[in-house]
Amino acid sequence: MSETQPRHATPDTPSPDLASPKAMRTVRFWALPVLIALAVFGLLATFFLSGILRPMTNLRHFPIALLNEDAGPTGAQVVKGMMAGFDNDAYDVRVLNKDQAKQQMDNAQIYGIAVIPPNFSSKLQAYAKSALTPGRVERPTVIISTNPRAGALGASIAGQTLQRAVAMVDHMVGERLSQEVAQQTGQKPESGAATLLLANPIEGKATVHNPLPDGTGNGLSAFIYGLLLLIAGYVGSVVINMSVNSMLGQAGQRSRLKTLLSKWALNLVLALLTSAGYLLIATNLGMPVQNSLLLWLFGVLVITAVGISSTSFIAAWGGVGALVSLFLFVILGLQSSGETVPIEATPAFFAWLSKFEPMHQTFLGARALLYLDGRADAGLSHSLLMTGIGLVIGLLFGLIVTRIYDRRDDRARPAEAVAASAPAEPVPVDAPVAPPEATTVTAETYPEP
């Protein structure tokens, strides 16, 4: 007769060809785990390095802006000259008015802006006249304002790009100015200093828009805080799954759905406590927090969504589900988050991932709460929407999968009960004793709830 293992067998149950001691002498036994681990580490290195090595080469619709406040005609000419120098595929250059510029800088929609001040034309004319006379000459300036609250590296790229654009326009205006002075005076300036001044009439002045306060890690605190929330959800789900299964054991006819619901409840309790703990530690370490209650609630939502989704994956696929969660919530998310390297400076694959990757949505919410006064249009509303959608998907997936497994178990139990209750045939006393049959063990390896 054959013996059947319990229906709640673990997904790690060995296959018959690996159950014998001879399996340890096979190439498959030793090679398979190593190959799987190497594949995971190879993907990890590929995702991490490919997203950070060449940000300038990968630029794609990188958002910067120009603001012309000049009352004279020269400002418009400078804007036109700067626009001509940008690659339309690499940069998304927006010509904004003053209100639009402030709104987009405050909401971290652009990484930097070049501002042509109101007196630019008049100062340029005065500069051309005074370049031929002794005395101190003040050059007209173009103000380059970077936005570190949108991202430290993004602000750096924007500053470098706009400085190059100003230098290019400076050279063009310098040539024109030298020609105009020569036409007006009838001769070129004899002084080398005057020639140099006329050749470089525009100065690019770098400023920082709304600098980050102390305690933000130069703009990394939002990314690190979001990463901590994701790790709490993922690691918490793994620990809860292992602990609950260990306490319940493999025996018994327990419902997979009820077991999953108990794990979800524990994930929620863990989210409430962990988010509060993170907030307490962050404030004690000196991290500026503008709205503690909103940040705590946001942390609870993220940890719960990740924990419930990860628990559902483990309920569906066992140990493989934990690996799927690791890829989804951590490995694929680090380079598509948009903090360490702007999304617009990564390969297109990461830009596609950022549309749904939980880490990018978490970063947007954390950045809005920590740096951008909790504005809904600064990424917070989008983050809440996408996190809520992820939570609903995780709930539905877990409910459907565990219900399917429970129904399979319910159909299998009557047949097992009949086989167990069947009366054994009487054996004559003088009947010969047959040698024992080899026992065949079969197992339906549904994932552990």
What does this protein look like?
By secondary structure, this protein is an alpha/beta fold. The chain folds into two domains: 62-208, abc type-2 transporter like domain (abc type-2 transporter like fold, 3-Layer(aba) Sandwich); 216-405, no CATH class. It has helices at 27-50, 74-84, 98-106, 120-130, 152-185, 192-199, 221-248, 256-284, 292-317, 319-334, 348-353, 358-371, 380-421, and strands spanning 3-4, 62-68, 91-96, 112-116, 141-146, 203-208, 441-442. The chain is 57% helix and 8% strand. It has 13 helices and seven strands. The longest helix has 42 residues, at 380-421. It starts with a strand and ends in a 7-residue tail after the last strand. The protein has a five-stranded mixed β-sheet. It has a two-stranded parallel sheet with strand order 1-7.
The poorly predicted ranges are 1-13, 427-431, 436-446
What is Rg? 33 Å
Largest sheet: 5 strands, mixed
Helices and strands, in order, run as EHEHEHEHEHHEHHHHHHHE
Structure classification:
alpha/beta
SS strand fraction? 5-15%
Helical proportion, percent range: 55-70%
> Mean pLDDT, rounded to whole units?
85
Count of DSSP H/I helices: 13
Organism: Mycobacterium cookii
Family: Belongs to the ABC-2 integral membrane protein family.
Subcellular location: Cell membrane
Keywords: Cell membrane, Membrane, Transmembrane, Transmembrane helix
Blueprint of the fold:
Elements: E1 3-4, H1 27-50, E2 62-68, H2 74-84, E3 91-96, H3 98-106, E4 112-116, H4 120-130, E5 141-146, H5 152-185, H6 192-199, E6 203-208, H7 221-248, H8 256-284, H9 292-317, H10 319-334, H11 348-353, H12 358-371, H13 380-421, E7 441-442
Parallel strand pairs: 1-7, 2-3, 2-4, 5-6
Antiparallel strand pairs: 4-5
